[in-house]
From TrEMBL:
Record keywords: Amino-acid biosynthesis, Aminotransferase, Arginine biosynthesis, Cytoplasm, Pyridoxal phosphate, Transferase
Recorded GO MF terms: diaminobutyrate-2-oxoglutarate transaminase activity; identical protein binding; N2-acetyl-L-ornithine:2-oxoglutarate 5-aminotransferase activity; pyridoxal phosphate binding
Pfam families: Aminotran_3 (PF00202)
Designated name of the protein: Acetylornithine aminotransferase
Subunit annotation: Homodimer.
Keyword Protease attached: no
Organism: Chitinibacter fontanus
Amino acid sequence: MSLTRSDFDQYMVPNYAPAAFVPVRGAGSRVWDQNDKEYIDLAGGIAVNSLGHCHPVLVNALTEQANKLWHVSNVFTNEPALALAKKLVEATFADKVFFCNSGAEANEAALKLARRAAIERFGEQKHQVLSTLNSFHGRTFFTVTVGGQPKYSDGFGPKPQGIEYFEYNNLDSLKALINDNTACVVVEPIQGEGGVLPADPAFLQGVRELCDKHNAFLIFDEVQTGMGRTGSLFAYQEYGVVPDILSSAKSLGGGFPIGAMLTTADIAKHLVAGTHGTTYGGNPLGCAVAGAVLDVINTPEVLAGVRAKHQQIKAGVEALNAKYGVFKEVRGMGLLMGCVLADQYKDRAKDVLNAAAAQGLMVLMAGTNVVRFAPSLVISDEEITTALARLDLALAAFVA
Ligand SMILES: *Cc1c(COP(=O)(O)O)cnc(C)c1O
């Protein structure tokens, strides 16, 4: 059977617009397409392939578990889930973990828990959810509505209620909305999809203080910023601001679908048996892989490597930019980086993406005006050097 990109248009729901080439295999930070053309991967499956493609430790964890036990449902617990929960608790502020299969589900659980705990403690009126404009929390109807981007949430009929929006990095705009009926405030420590925009430390600290003042839970959506991406295991550790509830996914599974919601024992106790659930959450295969991902990432060497690679890529991009003047800012933390296009090239991130692909380089967009990198946390120096050489050719073609 010969399969091509045009089969996507024939057989698949048209909610995506995938690239013209079809990747067929990967190793480390290299990927090959159907024509055996090689790409360096700075996209990382959108901050998912935290250890690159087919990392031997992950392949081993997955195949070992595949020969042992795939699925038992939550009618029974299982050893990989117990081991992963224990590791996450030991590495973070959290006492308790809930597993699911994606970032949206982790946020859905976080929001439901926050509302449930707030209502049980203070009464039915305490259900207001406050979120930042231009954020991204997933595509379930609750999470996409909380994201505050009408282009994603409009057109599906009546929306979940009780959600209001404030401006990112603007404490006064939160102050104007927060009150004693606020159940929770949801923040990405770095707005990922919204343009790789890091929070000001004083803003996050201020959000924490306002939450405390009004007995509102602080939820950090670390689906994109977590699992070593910023150079700390989670971005909250980098900022020194501790949330009440944290969501993780993407890099947690290194490419195997898994999500997790972390919280304290005091809050977790509001989700008693039967109040929430998922068939696959805590699946042995996913948890075995994520356990191996965590073991590899949560070491001083790998986390220090993330900071060093940030510097290396940033210096390289800035040197290229001195030549081409394409970007006005390179921002982000660790290996979540955004290159903001200069006014002259405004909203042409897609053209940079296509120019990069032509040269054998996979990059991402974050909105229409930011070129985003979210590569493997263990991308090698050689892979970075090759990526920058290809970016050089791509930018030359882009400005020509
Ligand atoms: C990707 C992302 C999500 C959604 O995760 P899915 O696995 O696609 O459901 C939620 N929040 C943030 C910050 C994300 O980057």
